[in-house]
Amino acid sequence: MRGGSGCSLLLLAALAGCAPKNWAPKPKPLPEPSAAELRSASERINRLHRELARCESLRRRPIPFEEERLIGEKRAIDCARENGGFWVDVPDGLSLQESMALPSPPDTAANRLQRYVNLVGMNLGAQSPRPTLPWTFGVLRSDEARLCVGAGGLVLVTAGLLRLLENEAELAGVLGNGIGQVVLKSHLEVASKTREERCRLELMSEAGRKLNPEVTLQLATPHDERQAETLRAARKMSDELMLQVAEQSIAESVASQLDWEGADRLSAELLISAGYDPGEYLKLLGRLPEDKGPGTGIPPNAGRQAALSRWLAGLRPSAAGFSPYADWPFRRYKRPPLGAELAVLRR
Prior knowledge:
The chain is mostly helical. 58% of the residues lie in helices and 4% in strands. The termini are far apart. The longest helix has 26 residues, at 35-60. It has a domain at 65-184 and 259-316 and 326-346.
């Protein structure tokens, strides 16, 4: 009776949620997979490893300019959708693409703004290490302060960012940073890594949907642990929620892999080459609002400002008077006012 009472109390405690912490019902043993099932799973995993190796080759493959531009155009379209569209006037009956192809778009305030930003940007692009790119600059309607860069020479700036600028040297600095990102091909490197990760994700997800959990456990014992780890990861990736999380993780890694400080330095070089005071862009970095969006990966502005300040200080002529920048610290360089075209943003 005592033994029966003990069992009854333990059963009641379990039902009430107060069973001893170290007590748990024993799981039912899984059926032993057959030798044929193990052999099939092993062959499938070996094949998966070979396919995953091909994913890695996608990252190493050179990207021709035509593909680079297509990547940039897709990025620009996504940015336009996320930021209220382009600040441009389209004639009645025409699409945006047809309007942009016109030899002379309508002379409106919005289109004059686009022309002005393109004029400043193309002057810098022509002096960059990639002067022959079809540089294209544009204004987006968003009130957020954002810069959007697409591979192949596409640089878009939001109305919200333009409203923060105090002179044309600052505008040139912002566009110069976008040019720097294109020149450094940061977005292409990210695109190649993203292509590899998505290839791996799709292969792992497909394999995971076909796997037998009993085979996974069996392979995890004295068999090939590398195969077992691949199986476990593949089954995890077969879950739809995990797929969404993985895709989001890939998207959020883009900004963190861009060379922001390198683009700032190249922007300062372009400003000096064009006769603008690079100190104006340095001051702007201290005024820009921080992008606190989740997973942005953008380094703090204070860090970028300090890095650029150190770089500019390094241009100072030596004691012997030698410096490739004889006009350092560039105080006599121009800080022209912003063009009247930006007045449309303040209406």
